[in-house]
Amino acid sequence: MTDQEIPYNQRSSILIRNASLNGRKTDIRIEDGIIRSVGETKERDAEITIDAAGDIVMPGLVNTHTHAAMSLLRGYADDMVLFEWLSEKIWPLEAHLTGDDVYWGTRLACLEMIRTGTIAFNDMYFFMDRAADAVEEAGIRACLSHGFIDLFTEEKREAEMKASVALHKNIRARNNPKLSFALGPHALYTVSPEGLRWCAEYSVEHDCGIHIHLSETEQEVNDCIATHGVRPAAYLDAHGILTSRTVAAHCCWLDTDECRLLGERQTAASHNPASNMKLAGGRAIPYSDLRNASAPVTLGTDGCASNNNLDLFEEMKMAALLQKFATRDPTILPAAESLEIGTKNGAEALRTGGGVIAPGYAADIILVDRDTICQTPFHNGSSNLVYSCNGTVVKTVICDGAILMHDRHIPEEEAILERAGKAASALVARRNVA
Amino acid sequence: MTDQEIPYNQRSSILIRNASLNGRKTDIRIEDGIIRSVGETKERDAEITIDAAGDIVMPGLVNTHTHAAMSLLRGYADDMVLFEWLSEKIWPLEAHLTGDDVYWGTRLACLEMIRTGTIAFNDMYFFMDRAADAVEEAGIRACLSHGFIDLFTEEKREAEMKASVALHKNIRARNNPKLSFALGPHALYTVSPEGLRWCAEYSVEHDCGIHIHLSETEQEVNDCIATHGVRPAAYLDAHGILTSRTVAAHCCWLDTDECRLLGERQTAASHNPASNMKLAGGRAIPYSDLRNASAPVTLGTDGCASNNNLDLFEEMKMAALLQKFATRDPTILPAAESLEIGTKNGAEALRTGGGVIAPGYAADIILVDRDTICQTPFHNGSSNLVYSCNGTVVKTVICDGAILMHDRHIPEEEAILERAGKAASALVARRNVA
């Protein structure tokens, strides 16, 4: 099948033949966005037949914390102290962002995520209607939040509530099963108690997700205890924010009780190891405590300004290595678990319906090259994927039964790179003139 | 110029046109393995002309600590406690290694290094004559050491001395400027004082390098103090091992005085962040102390069993991120410095004559893709190379004025993957039967 014949970003009936699943050859039938069968089949009547020729089939990766449009800020400022980095570089540049910038930044981010095998992401930023446009054109799944920051004023709170509701309506109107909405209360230090409570209530009423930053820095913990007399997770819980639909990003500084609380609430802790290391927060997520508490741990890249890429294969390695380094225990977070937090756990947290290669699950799957340096030798598939390979090992990406990349080809790649590059240059030029 | 016309692994006169160097377009003329001119030229009489079309030119990367043939063990065992990992998995498998295995493992490693922009490496292993065969066929530079392990017996020491001298002779006889020999005393806990002293003396007499493990684990430090009453660097120095021709791998547990000692001796400290994290040693190299002491810091991947790849682009990111995490200082080891330890510092440590793009330096250079996702946008070249890209960004590799990869093509890649994969399977089969 040539590239021209692939109906990119259109749900199709797909028959994948000769894929390798857990070391065995298999066929996979996909219809209406769902995996219908796994195992050898004699059926041949699919709109698209892909001969995987031994490529490995696995669930697509899920990025549970990012700010996609920040791809435009990739490399704009690095190696700085957090507050200076934000106040002198990131925020002044963001002040000049337009809806078009967010559109092109999100297109660039989606391009990068698809190329590296990510099929869904959890996003929080501004101009999210334009982010939604970009996501729909890319064909990837996304849960979109308007970053709700009221800075403890009623006026701003009203505006953020309005913006959140407007985004929710906008997303509902698109009637696209791959798009969902979440409340995005930014963090306990940027959102008033009233704002948090409103988000929590809206989330219950409309069965929406919640996407929030939690305990990224030690200062957040210290300030919260000083101001409110409780640690951050307890504070958020008192305002209804910790739910089974909530993704709490970072969670570096949780203590054991807080891990237990996340476990009780079934709130997902999104681990962002590269960002935590680069910004020098100083503490790795308490993975063992979270796991012991049965709290779901998922994986995220954070935005490109603090990573600086969106490659979850790299992130799986970083997560496993950081845990080992921080705990001095080489057995913690082994390769197979790292794969699980990068795929299944993320899919459950974002309620994609995927994350597992089995009948009835969403057809959010990727084909991974088997004939590469990083897969040679092939003693252990999980180990190779986590420790040896990066996202360039991905050949084909299928999301909701639609092909988004095939044989490493993604439509419009060159045009997106060019337009996003120009948008970034123009953004910096506007900031420099101002 | 088509692939067929490229004389791979043959020194040629090369004219690179339209390369991007520090943001400016330039031509580069290469003759007799040396960079002859940098800057626009009207000369056109080169055997090979490469239109870089805006690709970035930079020094090739230098891997100052690896065990190349361990690529055959990639993924064989992970996520285990160090001693069990070594005694139950790695050593029993290594006991079945043959010269042919080392040849194919080293070919696979050279393939991976060339593909990811590495032009020289510092190797320590067994059957090093076969490693030398592989290195010559690959065309990369290497400094080869026989791993000298006498376990404090005279009989073994004699054998190791003999093996070291034999390897030195073997390498000299090849008369290949890209190949050099170093003594390889494995570590202070595996080599007798007599063995260390012999290595030191041989190194002076023959102006050879020394390649040794130093302070990889806390236990090494504690045992050394308990047994010898001094810390490891002082102990090695007392035996003449710390010289300006020495590369000391790991160096995680050096204290400030030891860093000063390495600075005085101009001994290179090879940082191996991924391996240190994966094996959970618990301490990052004291980069600031080494830098303050003007000790050269270089970069290494360690062997594939503890990394599990040889991609120095990934390692530059890991190095920068690990320093920031371990010190809680986001300004430490910024991108430009990470590039320097990955290129120039390594080239100086291995005395390749390269590491800088300027006339008179060895033509050990790579062309890096500019039109990729990881380079979009292009706010900062160093940042993109270190934080955003991985080794797949490399398009063309020139070593000693010979082209080893062009437009991502390396001769014999498929055959090497196949043969190395088979060698690894056969090795495991032999171990399982035994």
TrEMBL record, chains A, B:
This is 5'-deoxyadenosine deaminase. GO terms for molecular function: 5'-deoxyadenosine deaminase activity; 5'-methylthioadenosine deaminase activity; adenosine deaminase activity; metal ion binding; S-adenosylhomocysteine deaminase activity. Substrate binds at residues 94, 186, 216, 302. It comes from Methanocalculus chunghsingensis. GO terms for biological process: S-adenosylmethionine biosynthetic process. SUPFAM superfamilies: Composite domain of metallo-dependent hydrolases (SSF51338), Metallo-dependent hydrolases (SSF51556). InterPro entries: Amidohydro-rel, Deaminase_MtaD/DadD, Metal-dep_hydrolase_composite, Metal_Hydrolase, MTA/SAH_deaminase. CDD domains: ATZ_TRZ_like. Binds 1 zinc ion per subunit. Belongs to the metallo-dependent hydrolases superfamily. MTA/SAH deaminase family. It holds the Pfam family Amidohydro_1. The gene is dadD. Zn(2+) binds at residues 65, 67, 213, 302.
